[in-house]
Amino acid sequence: MADVYGLAIAIAGGALAAILGGVGSAIGIGYAAQAANGVLSEDPEKFGSLLILVALPGTQGFYGFIGAFMVLMKIGILGGSIVPLTLYQGLQIFFAAMPVAIAGLVSAIWQGKVCTAGVEMVAKRPTEAAKAMIYGILVEMYAVLGLIVSIIAIILMKL
């Protein structure tokens, strides 16, 4: 039997995916941007090298948005009629959105810290910017895995 609680819980899962990914990205970008601004105050020519390091933690916000979009598509809010959900189905969708939500939050913050260290390295050794980016990308892979798990769980879910 469908009820309003199932739909509300499913929407909450999608909302948390977007919110937590966005919060993590904002924190991660904040760390890296603070360090980059310090470097740029002494050497504005390094802006291009530092921009990527500052922007990297922002991708988790996009992943959270994709997770939320997938939830809204699954339950019919986007592109169809709303699917009546039982409480159990709502909880399934909620928990299917959690890998991208939690991985996005945590990995964006840690990626911001790694990218901050990369900014400090670029300040002293500008030719090593690519190495700093690789370390940041390694952290990114876990956000991507969270997104993939959420997408697979949402797509394979029977409603």
Automatic annotation (TrEMBL):
Residue ranges occupied by any V-ATPase proteolipid subunit C-like domain in the UniProt entry: 13-70, 95-152
GO molecular function, a single term: proton-transporting ATPase activity, rotational mechanism
An example Gene Ontology CC term for this record: proton-transporting V-type ATPase, V0 domain
UniProt KW Metal-binding keyword: no
Transmembrane regions: 48-72, 93-112, 132-156
Superkingdom of source: Bacteria
Family as reported in the entry's similarity comment: Belongs to the V-ATPase proteolipid subunit family.
NCBIfam families in the record: PRK06558.1 (NF005124)
Protein name: Permease
